[in-house]
Amino acid sequence: MSIIRYVVVIPVIAVIIMANVMYIAIYILSEEAVDYELKRDLRKSVETYCHKVNIEDGELVIDEDFPTKKDNVYYLVVLRNKEIIKGKYPKEVEDQLAKMKVNKKNKLLELGYEKYYVQDIRIGRYNRKGVFIRGVMRQSDAESFYRRIEVIAYLSIIGFLVFFLICEIYFFKKISKELKNMRNVAENIGSNLDVSQRMESNSRFYEIESLIQANNRMLDRMDQTFRLQEQFTSDVAHELRTPVATVLAQCQYAMEKVRDKEEFDEILEVIYRQSKRVNSIITQLLNFSRLDQDRVEVQNETLDLVEIVSVICEEWQERAENEVSIRTCLEKAVAGGDIGLISIVIENLISNAVKFSHSGGIVDVATGEDEDHVYVSVKDYGIGIAPEDLELVFRRFYQCDKSRNDEGFGLGLPLSAKIAEKHGGEITVVSELGKGSTFTLILPKNQF
Known about the structure:
The chain is of the alpha+beta class. The protein has helices at residues 3-48, 94-98, 139-142, 144-192, 206-256, 261-292, 305-320, 339-355, 412-422, and strands at residues 53-56, 59-62, 69-70, 73-79, 84-86, 107-111, 114-126, 129-138, 301-304, 324-330, 334-337, 361-369, 373-380, 426-432, 436-444.
């Protein structure tokens, strides 16, 4: 059974059960209500004619217009000893009612399926006997009005049930149609692998509309992911093609034209440098893959960021020689994490700052901590990053200015951001074109 049918059938069954319960309740309550109303109406009818029977100077006086039968009610004037002064009983129950006690209580005579209601109201005393007006009413003669109400109630239940079923069928078809459309779109996407398709978002039902929008957002992300994957594949091919082409060209040249050892050594140096570049790309791609698949075990170690930053700054100062000066302002910063991975992040940030600084420029490196976080800030005063490039610097293989960074291939910052994320931290960037950039590694104090 489909979920829609399940959702529809259960309410229908519940409504049918409720209708049966209501039917039983109406049946029981209607019997009680009819019985109560008939007794009340009979008493009011008898009280209406009490003023037509009086006892004056010891004599019983009955007005001439005293009715013996009116509106299906029999009226009698009787004494307590059951003697009838005026009026008569219905013939079919005359004997039974003649034997019935005369008092102020309501009485009921059941004869087969028929009921007779009897009401006595005392007028006074005559010849030392109580005088009463007795009203007799046959149920079948008087209950037609109440039975109509009961029938109307039953018809209302049936009408409500029919209306509910019609609504259920309508909404069932409506919801089924919209879900089938969603299914068809999903099947088309699955069979054609075309994630550019979108589900129509015009449902009148909030839940279905939310589901359609959620699916469309998922398709947007999938489409974006596929496009990034395609771009990633293209970038990898492009980055690897250049060094591989260089190696092949050098090998071919060496085999065809090299005649002395000095020229051969130069070719080997080019091959070595390009092979090292390819190896670096492959290594970082493998690191990305392992981080994405949680195959890298992040060690739980105490990170003294002051010590780590000091060592890396000294190494890069030696490499930069006098072209760039690295200044440090290192305050206490201790966190938890993997020393090897965090060292990669810090080295990437410092190496980028050195590469993008002007000749004779300065790179400021600072560490510190607050109540919840520690940070490593690397600031350069170089070429800076354009506003439109700020959101792209952490994309794989993205390079803001390849002409100023022929040694890089756009994997350092994305890898660094991934490592920071694995440690529960992040890397922020603030930059102004032509004035430099500031990259900050932020880590939680108690991540491990």
